[in-house]
Amino acid sequence: MSWVAGAEDSPYGIHHLPYGVFSTPDDPAPRLGVRIADRVLDLRKVVSGSTCSDCPTCSALASDTLNPFMALGREAWSKVRGNITDALTDSDLAGVISPLLTPIADARMHLPFTPGDYVDFYSSEHHATNLGAMFRPNEPALLPNWKHLPVGYHGRAGTIVPSGTPIVRPRGQLRTGDGRTVFGPSARFDIETEVGFVVGVPSRLGTTVSADAFTEHVFGVVLVNDWSARDIQTWEYRPLGPFLAKSFATSIGTWVTPLDALAAARVPAPAQDPEVLPYLTESDRYAYDLELSVSWNGMEVSRPRFADMYWTPAQQLAHMTVNGASLRTGDFYASGTVSGPGKDQRGSFLEVTWAGAEPVKLPDGSTRTFLEDGDAVTISATAPGPRGTMLGLGEVTGTIAPALD
Predict the structure, then answer these.
(1) Which of 127, 148, 154, 319 is the catalytic position?
(2) What is the domain class of 118-401 according to CATH?
(3) pTM greater than the 0.70 cutoff
C-alpha cells in the first residue's frame, strides 16, 4: 500500500505508476513524472539531489522526454520502477517525497516521448471483416494475405499529438456520387480506437527481432485514436492503401503504462488458423485483457476488447523487423482498430453507424453518422492488476475543429 492519499483505490495506484512529461505554471519546463493517484512525482527533482546525478539513469530521468530512459533497457526500467515503488510505500520517506508531488490538476501534459517511425497495423479480424464488407461488397471480406501476416502501413510520426490537442477537419480529394472528383473537407470524418506500443531498445539495421523478444524492446503502452477521413480513404486507398486519409493526425494518451504494470492482464490470445510461419510463432502466445470505452460527446457508444485481436503486439514487432528494418528508441506502432463481434464492440464510427445507415442518437437529441465540428471523442481503458486491483490507462481525447480555409 502507498502512503499517498487516495492511491489505494485509484486506477493510478502503486500497481500502475505510468510515466509522462508534464510542466506547471510556476515551472514551465517539461520534465518526466510518474503518476500516483491524483499526483505526479517529479523525477527531475527526485534525481537532482542524487549522489549519482551524472550516471546514465539519473541523467535520463532528468530529461524532458522518455526516450533516454527507454533506451536504457529492461534492467534499468525494472530497477527504477522498484525504487519508485519503495519510495511511495515506505512511510518513513513520506516527508521527503511529499514535496516532490504535484497535483494532477496543476500539471500540463505534453507528448511523453519523441516519436521515431510510426507503423499502424490492421489486426482485428472483426474490424477487417466489417470494412471489407463495406468497401468491397462483391469480394471476400478478408483478402488472401490477412491471416498469414499482420497487415500494416507506415504512418507519419510528425503528426502524432498528445491527448487534448484539437483536431482540424482534413481536406482532400473526394469522389462524388455522380463520379466527379472534387476537393474539399471530409464529410465522413471518423475515429479508430487503437492501442499503441512504444519501443525503447533499438535494433541494428539488417537484423531481426523475434516475437519472444517483445518485452526486451517495448517499453510500454498508450491509448490511440487514429483519426480517419473515410471519404478521402475510399477514393485513395487502392492500390497502395491509406495516405492523406490518416496522416493528418494521430492522438495518443499522455501517460505511458509500462509493460510490467500489465503483467496481471495477460490472457491467452485467440487461436490462429492457418498456422503462421515460424518467425511469427510465439513460445508464450498472449494478449492483454484491456477493456476499452469510446465516448462521443460524453455518451459511451462502444466497449471493444483488446484481447480479441487476431495478431498480437509481439507478432507485429517481429513482422515489422523480419526484413531487417531497424528499431529506434521512440518508434511507435499501433494495433489497428480494436473491434469485437458485437455491435456494441465496434471501434470506429464507420462500424458503429454501419457506414451511416444506423445513426447514433446523442444525449442532446441530435443524431450522428460521422463527426461534426465541435464533437469530442474520448477513449479510455481499464485492465486487471495484481491481487484483484484495477488500473486505468491514460485516456486519449480530441475535439474536432473546422477545416481550414
Answers:
(1) 127
(2) alpha beta
(3) yes
